[in-house]
What we know:
The protein is about 70% helix and about 0% strand. It has helices spanning about 15-30, 40-65, 70-100, 110-115, 135-160, 160-185, 190-195, 200-210, 210-220, 225-240, 250-270, 285-290, 290-305, 315-345; strands at about 70, 355. The protein has a two-stranded antiparallel sheet. The longest helix is centred in the C-terminal third of the chain and has 34 residues, at about 315-345.
Amino acid sequence: xxxxxxxxxxxxxxxxxxxxxxxxxxxxxxxxxxxxxxxxxxxxxxxxxxxxxxxxxxxxxxxxxxxxxxxxxxxxxxxxxxxxxxxxxxxxxxxxxxxxxxxxxxxxxxxxxxxxxxxxxxxxxxxxxxxxxxxxxxxxxxxxxxxxxxxxxxxxxxxxxxxxxxxxxxxxxxxxxxxxxxxxxxxxxxxxxxxxxxxxxxxxxxxxxxxxxxxxxxxxxxxxxxxxxxxxxxxxxxxxxxxxxxxxxxxxxxxxxxxxxxxxxxxxxxxxxxxxxxxxxxxxxxxxxxxxxxxxxxxxxxxxxxxxxxxxxxxxxxxxxxxxxxxxxxxxxxxxxxxxxxxxxxxxxxxxxxxxxx
Length: 358
């Protein structure tokens, strides 16, 4: 029976802590951009790196166990995981804007929902969309990664050129990012959301999964320096989070993204070893990581709704976003997880479009 990618993988507390840190950085950047100018970049790249690592690990497990990858099942499981929470937010957005129109975006509701569901927000669009989906460019980048990476990984595995493929992908994306910075130098906001700008961090995460044994061996060899290393990682990530005018700085795009991704890889391998949390104080961070996906989806629209609150908008937006994230988790997301488990339990291994490795 084929393994369903991403369907029954147990949640590791350390990885949820990483998610919690990442979403916290995004929240404070959105609420207080003048203080935490680079925090959004750090948080997003951490998410991308972790996603690249986990997806590649799951694909490799399926390849090693069955010798093939079911692309149709992969797509189905990703959709069940991602679409329900997104759909809930879009339904609420459509109702609120159509009835009350607080953002003045009633005329753009249809196009906004179309752009969100087709994962187009990381491209410059020829039509206006609501700021309620401004943050969904990251989901678009990940979805495009899911679209291409499984086939690329299977092809590279069959040809025994996985390492070369990763190097080529990283080099190509860094070059593409550099070119886009040059072409759109007049408009940093466009560079920021392009699919090529931060995609290298997804590949860094994928590389960490492919070379997991080597990374683990390297970290074990440096085990006596683990504490100084973790302190250094924390300091560097904090410094980048506070870096002024991060979105307008060229080196952040070309060098900063891969650097943050590498630092995140260290966190993944160190915190990923935790069977349980070493300190109870980390439990709120873990719980935040548990609902991080919905929190991220809701934050943009809540920010817009809270603008009239003035100085209190930052704190209010975080509180309301967390509330909506928890509601999403206990309703549509838990139901989606149950559905995924049921699909895995009932699967007989007969799925279309399987690609075999030699």
